[in-house]
Amino acid sequence: xxxxxxxxxxxxxxxxxxxxxxxxxxxxxxxxxxxxxxxxxxxxxxxxxxxxxxxxxxxxxxxxxxxxxxxxxxxxxxxxxxxxxxxxxxxxxxxxxxxxxxxxxxxxxxxxxxxxxxxxxxxxxxxxxxxxxxx
Length: 135
Prior knowledge:
mainly alpha
């Protein structure tokens, strides 16, 4: 059985790809230099910006119902990014959605009634969003 303290996190593995000695230094308890800290902060900042700029294509249920590149799927993604992400409750909804929706899609492929219910809810949501948009 492997001890927990011998595990390498994904973050540490990523850091080791930039500094081959990272894991060794961390294991020895070495403290990073001030230059290393500044470089790390710049890297973290650039990484966060990349994540913000990336086009998040996830939209499991709409992709299942309409297709990944359907205008309705894009409408829902845009609503997520421009409206829901601004608010705490919106972000909470998105987190719950990403946890539950892969299972819902899997079940809806087997249970026709669930698929019909999902389509009705998503169609209703799309119509509501479309009404809010300026013509």
